[in-house]
């Protein structure tokens, strides 16, 4: 009986040894696969001797299901594929970040695409963006002109590049353009509100725009309180317009554009036709932290002024991000009929400085 139990014990021990040896072979094979894939392995500093150069130490850490992972020491940056994220069971499957939803330059459908095909005019004072301009009006007082809004893409069928995409895109735009007195009171003088839906198309270095927009002008409540009776004379300036525009880059640093708009509904002294045209100069592509100089000029003609209007120019420094967003700061000059439509028939000469941000 004793011999039989001893024999069984020895058989169990041999089986355990065999299983351990098999596991070691699997681990070694997995490590060989990693080495064959080009993963560097360095000797531990404790094993460097003689004239051998000390190499960065890598540690072997046992992963799930006997997989061997080679991880760098804590003091070195992690070598991780940007498209691979750590899996968290509570969040479901492992997400994969795709740098481009379309292969190469192919066209595909994109919801909430990066960038815009037809960008807002830099020197256009009624374009939707985030902006603040402090200026002195010649022969009058000083003001703040602020713009709170933006323009974003909703749907695109085209390439996925954010800077100069090709294809069709539907955007939405909205902005409130307000005027405050530049004094200790900061009275709210007036505001123009604009909302629209542009449909844009880009091919090669050309961009085209078809858009509809609504614009209305309102008198500020603080101005009304400070000037009793002014509400009786407020202007209900309204435009519901259809726009056709074209933009081209004759050179990567140089943009030319023009557009015509016809308002199917007008009020408060507005007339149907208006025209815009201008040019912009700046370094293309992402600028990094150093930025680049820019210059932009815009002309705006309106039928209610017998196709007179205004001209505005801006000059300064520009920063452009990888998704095409642009921040600018610099000098601002405006001359012509007022940029606030509550006093659209008055003339202004503005000299000041501003900060502008376009999505």
Radius of gyration: 33 Å
Strand order of the largest sheet: 4-5-6-7-8-9-10-11-12-13-14-15
What series of H and E elements makes up the topology? HEEEEEEEEHEEEEEEE
How many DSSP H or I helices? 2
Helix content: 10-25%
CATH topology of the domain at 112-358: Outer membrane phospholipase (ompla), Chain C
Q: What is the general shape?
A: globular
Return the CATH class of the domain at 112-358. Answer: Mainly Beta
- Supply the helix-strand structural class: mainly beta
Instruction: Count the beta strands.
Output: 15
CATH architecture label name of the domain at 112-358: Beta Barrel
The percent range for strand residues is over 45%
Largest sheet: 12 strands, antiparallel, barrel
CATH superfamily of the domain at 112-358: Phospholipase A1
The mean pLDDT is 81
End-to-end Cα distance, whole Å, is 87 Å
Uncertain ranges? 1-8, 30-63, 65-71, 76-92
Short account of what is shown:
With 359 residues, the protein is mainly beta. It has helices at residues 2-36, 221-226, and strands at 59-62, 68-71, 108-111, 130-137, 142-158, 167-181, 188-203, 206-219, 238-251, 254-267, 273-282, 292-302, 308-320, 326-337, 347-358.
Could you walk me through the main structural features you see in this protein, from its secondary elements to its overall organization?
The chain is mainly beta. The chain has a domain at 112-358: Phospholipase A1 (Outer membrane phospholipase (ompla), Chain C, Beta Barrel). It is 11% helix and 47% strand. The chain has two helices and 15 strands. It has helices at residues 2-36, 221-226; strands at 59-62, 68-71, 108-111, 130-137, 142-158, 167-181, 188-203, 206-219, 238-251, 254-267, 273-282, 292-302, 308-320, 326-337, 347-358. The strands form two sheets. A twelve-stranded antiparallel beta barrel has the order 4-5-6-7-8-9-10-11-12-13-14-15. The N and C termini lie far apart (87 Å). Residues 1-8, 30-63, 65-71 and 76-92 have low confidence and may be disordered.
């Amino acid at each position: 009986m004793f011999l039989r139990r001893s024999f069984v014990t020895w058989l169990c021990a041999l089986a355990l040894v065999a299983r351990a040896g098999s596991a070691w072979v699997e681990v070694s094979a997995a490590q060989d696969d990693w080495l064959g894939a080009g993963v560097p392995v360095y000797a531990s500093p404790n094993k460097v001797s003689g004239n051998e150069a000390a190499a960065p130490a890598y540690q072997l850490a046992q992963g799930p299901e006997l997989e061997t992972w080679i991880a760098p020491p804590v003091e070195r940056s992690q070598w991780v594929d940007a498209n691979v994220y750590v899996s968290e069971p509570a969040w479901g499957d492992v997400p994969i970040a795709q740098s481009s939803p379309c292969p190469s330059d192919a066209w595909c459908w994109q919801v909430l695409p990066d960038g815009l095909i037809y960008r807002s005019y830099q020197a256009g004072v009624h374009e939707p963006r985030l902006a603040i301009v402090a200026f002195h009006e010649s022969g009058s007082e000083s003001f703040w002109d602020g713009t709170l809004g933006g323009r974003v893409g909703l749907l695109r069928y085209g390439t996925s590049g954010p800077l100069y995409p090709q294809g069709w895109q539907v955007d939405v735009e909205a902005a409130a353009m307000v005027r405050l007195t530049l004094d200790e009171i900061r009275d709210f003088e007036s505001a123009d509100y604009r909302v629209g839906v542009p449909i844009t198309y880009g091919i090669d270095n050309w961009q085209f725009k078809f858009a509809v927009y609504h614009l209305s002008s309102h008198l500020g409540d603080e101005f009304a309180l400070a000037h009793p009776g002014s509400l009786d004379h407020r202007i209900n300036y309204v435009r519901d317009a259809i726009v056709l525009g074209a933009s081209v880059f004759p050179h990567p640093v140089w943009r030319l554009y023009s557009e015509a708009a016809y308002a199917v509904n007008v009020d408060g002294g507005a007339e149907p036709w208006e025209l815009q045209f201008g040019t912009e100069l700046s370094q293309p592509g992402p600028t990094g932290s150093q930025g680049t100089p820019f210059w932009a000029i815009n002309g705006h003609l309106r039928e209610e002024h017998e196709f007179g209007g205004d001209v505005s120019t801006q000059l300064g420094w520009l920063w452009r991000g990888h998704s095409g967003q642009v921040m600018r700061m610099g000098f601002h000059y405006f001359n012509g009929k007022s940029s606030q439509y509550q006093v659209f028939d008055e003339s202004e000469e503005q000299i000041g400085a501003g900060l502008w941000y376009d999505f």
